[in-house]
Batch of 2 targets.
Target 1
Amino acid sequence: MSGELKSILATDCGSTTTKAILIEKQGDTYRLVVRGEAPTTVEAPFEDVTRGVLNAVMEVEELAGRKLLDGDRIITPRNGDEGVDVYLSTSSAGGGLQMMVTGVVKSMSGESAERAALGAGAIVMDIVASNDGRLPHEKIRRIRDLRPDMILLSGGIDGGTKTHVVELAEIIAAADPKPRLGIGYNLPVIYAGNKEARTEIEEQLADKCSLVVTDNLRPVMERENLMPARHKIHDLFMEHVMAQAPGYKKLMAWTSAPIMPTPAAVGNIIQTIAKRESIEVVGVDIGGATTDVFSVFEDVFNRTVSANLGMSYSVSNVLAEAGLPNVMRWVPFDLDESELRNRIKNKMIRPTTIPQSLEELMIEQAIAREALRLAFTQHKALAVGLKGVQQERTISDTFDQSGSGDTLINLMNLNLLVGSGGVLSHAPRRIQTVMMLLDAFLPEGVTELAVDSIFMMPQLGVLAQVNERAATDVFVQDCLIHLGTAVAPVGKGKDGQKALTADIQFREPRRFEVNYGSLLQIPLEVGQTVEATLTPAGKLDLGEGNGKAIRCTLKGGIGGIILDCRGRRPFEIPTDPSSRIKKLTEWTEALGVYGPALETELQSADRG
Amino acid sequence: MAHAYTPGLRVNKETLISKTRRLPLKGQVVVKKGDVLGALDVVARTELPGNVQPLKAASILGVHQQDLEEYMLKNPGDSVEKDEIIATAKSFFGLFKSHVRSPITGTLESVSTITGQLILREPPVPVEVTAYFDGTVSEILEEEGVVMEAVGSFIQGIFGVGGEVAGDLVVVVSGPEDELHADLLKPEHRGKIVVGGSRVHLDAVSRARELGVHGIVVGGIDDADLREILGYDLGVAITGHEDIGVTVVVTEGFGRINMAARTFELLGSHVGRQASINGATQIRAGVMRPEVIVPTQTVLTDVQHVEKEPEGLGIGSQIRAIRVPFFGRLGEVTELPPELQKLESEATVRVLKVRFQDGEEATIPRANVEMIET
């Protein structure tokens, strides 16, 4: 199929909106032509997902001025000017894929099972492990109450003891869980544990569940083998879960490739880009209810979803988890605690409202920083040690497992940080997005920043499976809005003392000096690059060691180049309110985040 | 665009109220179509499978799990009583005996020779669904439940805690701007649904629990008070299962906000009538809001009240501002400019112009108002 494609239609059926994009080959390259959207129609009164798909495609049809539909049918294959070569789709409608996973030891097979499920695009509702501290009847009740779409049962290394994993199967059998959607089928359970225990597991579960057996995801202690389990999750997602959702049988017949869970597709495009550019990437999608974080470090892909960190439905939970002082530290004015609490709760109960006043915007962006920071902290805790598919750690590393090993996330090596989701994509000024990403992720050394303003990563992710080139062409040229490059030395300095000297080769060479505790923005437009020599002061490090200069290429963007000398490890904000407000005001003024805009705020360069 | 539709909370003086009352599992419907019922009458019942208790019998007996069956005194399927000996083993030439006693009354479900575990199941738990409000059974859903109907007032709140309760309505404040303090609640309010004004205080909720007040309907509540009432900080708005002894329905939002005059007057017109309220709130796809139902006509001869189609937001529509800086204020739409406008926050959005009840005029994002539906 690949190589011959001229016209591609892709949709993403989200829980509220169905988004369609039309991609066409223009000369040698693939470009986004138009996009359309319509409300998702999984729930009453329509209860047929294809209705929303057709509405979104109809909008694309009108905007592109080309016939794509023949009644209620997408025209494929293309016939001259009518129709498209392929039609693809992703879906997170109906709350996405909700799974429960089990393992014998929570921090070992339990964590491996969690990584397998998350990587396949699922939300992990709970991890049931032999050593999770709950009594068996509590586990049984939990499984019953949660009603997952699917269970991944793992535990034990091949040839090891069978008792614990069979005990977990007994617990599942006793719970006799019913699937969340549909009543006419058995709950899918994937067994990916000790292969010696397969017979016993079948005895326990074959009659009660739709049991599928696959390779052990932890065949030996020091190796994970997650892909067979992930493939089975995708197969069962299509066969059981999706097939139960209204209209999906029809949609499955329309698409040229299997429908993917939305987060799995996003993970796919991020991995494709990391591989193609040989870079290390972090991506984040902050939504109303959840925040997804994706990363590729040392060729290992990881994904986490923070199910209760978001900007509307879950906004109150951000406050509960981060604590009031952590939210307040980003607010550049005085605000009474009970007033802030009430405002956040009012946003929770009326999630579609938008900030009208500047103060409200500042509060919303303060909460976003904390939601992103917490989601990233959770990601760092899971993206650890034991490496993905078929890669081994040394046996001595294995004993670190109790502490979950070292995180793979090395911010100094991070090349590209991509943000997505309403609060980042629709910030009134792009520099606000830059600031939120910097504050929440605290990137170190030299890092390029970008935002996916219309969220087409899901559609590009599923496209990457069919035609990688088309997906990456559009990703680089149309999907990302380049925000610029951040330079942040690591270490602690003294406020007001020189922290960084940047010699940048514009038409004329220019030198910039930044003091510790400050930020400086240097305009550099999208598409432009400059060579630079960056020299951190004595105790500060840009990756080569304390005080050692680095030479690099800096890429431009809407925010230009940001020299961020506010310190890393530690990054500190004054705790007393008046000093905090003074410092935050100084930083936001330096970049024109709020108040009078700086010239570099080139909103006109947006392509969203 | 001359019209935009911003769904609001319903405040209906007289409408046909129809609710599906469904069991969580299939069971038995115990009423007939056309039956006229009271709020507390049972319409359907079923039995949920009992809880399961695993028991590590082999390790209690100190025997190998493969041999467990030899020591069992009961077989799978047998009934067991709490503390009854269900397995026994002798050791040291029969000098010592160890026993396994059942921790529950129920049945022995299985004996595992792989894990050495027994699975015991408690007796089924009966579950009943009530009519919820006074009305007529208009439809029977075989083995699942019924549809209940009545004509009366229907008011949606914005947020609530606690489940379904019923009681006579009583207004304890003199106006929608008054706050509800503990001293306004008296012993005669036991079993009643109490209507407050702009804010219910923590002390009033505590007093209501002590007195056995069934429910509180009020304009606002402070988040700090809610946290005290629940004992935790509410992270996600999914409520209804709280066991706090009183159901609270908030009509406007968090903070001190006057109850909309229309809502207050409507509730006031029903003093002495029985109301059914539910605090259950779910703000996700498939949103669920708390509600107050006051049936005025429970025997339906034929359906004379047809629900009005929701109208679009237009000039003259009554709205409520639902975000700072105008939060909680009520007014009338005076203009719906079609072009996008830039706000103080610099977001560029669709707006409307509103004249508030005090005559002040303002421009507000359309996303930040809700229609007061009648």
Target 2
Amino acid sequence: MTRWPSPRRLLALGMTLVPVLTAVLGPALAGLPHAPPGGPYAPSGPHHLLGTDGLGRDVLTTTLQGGRSILLLTLTATLLAYLLGGLAGLAAATGANRLVEQLLLRPLDVVVAIPALLLVSVAAVWLRGEASAMALVIAFAYAPRIARIVHAAALDAAGRGAVEAMRQQRESWACIHLGYIGRAALRPVVADLDTRIVGVLYLVASANFLGLGFGPGSPDWAVTIARNESGLLLQPWSVLAPATMIALLVVGVNLLGDDVLHRPRTARVGAPR
Amino acid sequence: MPLSRRALLTGAAAAAGVVVVGACGAPPDTPPAAPRHGGRLRAVFQGGGSKETLDPHAPRPWVDQARHKALFDKLTELGDDMTPVPRLALGWQANPDATVWRFTLREARFHDGRPVTADDVLASYARILDSAAAGRRGTQLLGELDLANSRALDPRTVELRLRAPVVELPTRLAGTGMAIIPAGTGDFGRPVGSGPFRFESFDAGTSSMLATRFDEHWEGAPYADQLEILSAGLQARGNAVLGGQAHYADDLDPTFARIHEADGAVRVIRAPHSGMQAFAAKVDRPPFDNPDVLGALALTIDRQRLVDVVLAGKGEIGNDLFGKGYQYYADDLPQRPHDPDQARWLLRRAGAENLRVTLNTADAGTGFVEAATLLAEQARAAGITIDLATVDKDTYFADILDNGVLVNESVGAMPIPNHASTHLLSSAAQNVSRYRSPEFDAAYRNAQATGDTGRRTAIYHDMQRRFRDTGGLLVWGHSDWIGATAPALSGAVAAPANTLNWARFDRVWIGAGA
Amino acid sequence: MCARLGWAVGQLSCLALLVFLGTAALSGDAAVTLLGDGYDPGQAARLRARLQLDDPVWTRFGRWLADLCRGDLGRSLVGGEPVGTVIAHAAAPTLVLAGATLLVVVPLAGTLGFAAGVREGSALDRVLTTVTVALYAVPDFVVALLVVALVSVRLRLLPPTALGADGATLLTRPELLVLPVLVLCCQSTSSLSRQVRAGALDALGTGYVAQAVRLGLPRWRVLLRHVAPNAVAPAVQSTARVISSLVGGVLVVEVVFAVPGLASELISAVAARDVPTVQGITLVLGAAVLLVNLAADLVVARVVPRARERA
């Protein structure tokens, strides 16, 4: 039976889709009604709906162009981080040997010890706005955190009576570890997915704001916020338009996460497993 | 040809050095009020974290120069047109070929009570030239000084002998890092100078230097009791003066001037002709070794648009020459036009249609990336494709000396001859465009030996004409130096950085100006 | 316990080596950055000789390590100050900022998250979720720019920068702390309260809680004795994470409010290629985060059964 999505989900979808569609379709739409360049921080007018930025570029146009980079980078980095962190965490938790667990987790702690933004700030000098390299560094910075959570959740699951029961019933290793523990660990990890995406998004944005990410001429949302900081009082849209896009994306992903990842949980409370 | 024997200048000239220079955007003229004494003055400058130093011969960020100016004096300082203004020197005279100079010192004391003597001057210059030391900024300017044969004629007369004629010696002595220190100083933990403020304390962690009024300063005691000089980033400097946390904020951006000249929350002071904004094309390698290609690029630049956008209109357009508004500037040369069609024609003639070059840019200077972005757009009109390469900002100025073909360049206020000797001669360390011209070098040496100001000016004009077409420096603008004072501060004047009246806190006072 | 300390030392050594190689591989060196726009090859060569930058990488690392073993972090290449002093100066404002933020965030987020979690779907839960999501949505640097522009510059209510303030000044003049801590709180309260809420929900869903409820234990007792401890486990690890991400937030805040703290010192040291300072700061930060994680693990070991067996 198909059900009409709840208004809440529609809202969440809508909020996510605005920045995502902007990022995907924006570059094609940008500057379609070709507007002559204006003065720096020019007020809103017929040529420039949201005014211009510090370079005299149309704010609407740069906002349309500035989403693709941040979105692509965020998704790639998150995916990579999950891949690396999830595997390491699960392997550590289910490993038969304590030494294996230590060998897997301890090196990760070295990375965890460096706050992500600082890792990026040291690496930034080499990266020079190279998107693929930035994705790797960010994934590298986030993987240990994911590994820790996967590890803790898997440990928790492995400690439950059900596993003991399965062991006694001589279920296969794969069935216990990948099937039960993996699935049990998946919940807190996926419950975290939206926060994770947002975390990476923030890391990318903060790095760009501090001038550690994409080149200063890039139309990227966070870069333009930083570049137009001094014009905030002259043409607020030059900061607010890209900031709104980032905020919409964050709220949308969060609501969507809550909505989608939340539903099975309500059903699960008290339900036999 | 007799060298003009300069009359001994007196203290009156120094007092006259305080000239109000176009304090644009100042509130309507108010009747002058009597200066008030007392109070603690707080000023905030661009800093450099742990790079900041109290060694007056090795200044790095602007905040160092501001601090050193409060604590030390030089023999001379620069006026707004880059002519020398006597400071510790009362006056000077030179022999006809400008190789032997005598400077008479005024009666001045260091903060510890010792008099400033000729020996201190010689010791200071010896320290600057110390070949074992590194990071001394004045080494190049004193390059011709023959220290072994220079001597103190009496405690208040110093004779400097040069290995080659330098008719501009008095302006060179006003350069960055030329402070006079007491002989024998090697450690600047608690610096002692002869400047208007006496060192009190320095906290590197908070980047705060505190100094107190030096009552025995030769120019009279400052009005404020205490002076605190701090450093902070661009936005924080502007916010500090807006939020009443500082009396003066230095080196603000044009957008700040645009906003607050209009709303009057603070007094914006702008000094014109304070910095050269340019692109440097390397003329020793393709494609800009071809004068037609270089000329084409020069014609594609819409200078007015760059000034309007990058400098928010707070500046003037450039004519591919350094030093607009300064002594010896060749202002009779026609303004370089913006003519993309002519540029296309030149490129066709050079066989360089569809030219594609890379512009190495970085956030190493205010407006670098913005200017580069706009140039790339403008060049399209002439069929030139400019790819922007964002390079490392921390090592930018060293990298561009050898690397790339087209780069951003900016130079602060300094006399035109000093710019030539440090940036344009074949031997110059900061010759970014790789201009190498034996004729230009010879003309420079000739000018240094020419005592007559009129004839020397003619030589400098000729050098600039020669340089402009083949030198590789595409000067698109001359920026204003922008600072802001809190309503409580009076007496501040606008002056380009590096000149006498910039960062000068002995002649300003806290208290309503009206 | 000893083994863990051993691991920690090993990790820190790895970190030191990584950071050293990383900074050594950066383009340019301290001599280049020191001379800035007055770069001149001759001067640079002399500076390099004086700073011993011409020595091979391994010699320099060995020298640094040998000094470290004597408890000496070396001297800054650009300022000449002992790195220990630099760190001590810079750490104070950062600690004050981070400490003040945690003092606000932990009780606030704990209470809010737990209250929302145990009444999932209630009006309280919905309001709290909406508010935290909204707060979380605006990047901290945007919040910082906006509060400075509005509260300080326009309304002149609170100082816009912490100009010239060290750690002690921040403590004696709390008005300087209000805006930076406010900015830092927005993000961390939201994320931590969401974690606590998720933890509470998770605990509510476990079999033994259902069992306890079936046995007829009073609700408050179930919540306090069975739900709260299990909600704490992920929350403690999240707090550890919040602390480490706080360092990132602190960086933005330090830049916007001109606080002379550790994070901005690190950035400027990287920019200046001041290798000993970069080394010292990352080592101290690394040690601090390791300690926090160690503490988190110990707390988790007390409340999660299987982890206790292994600890």
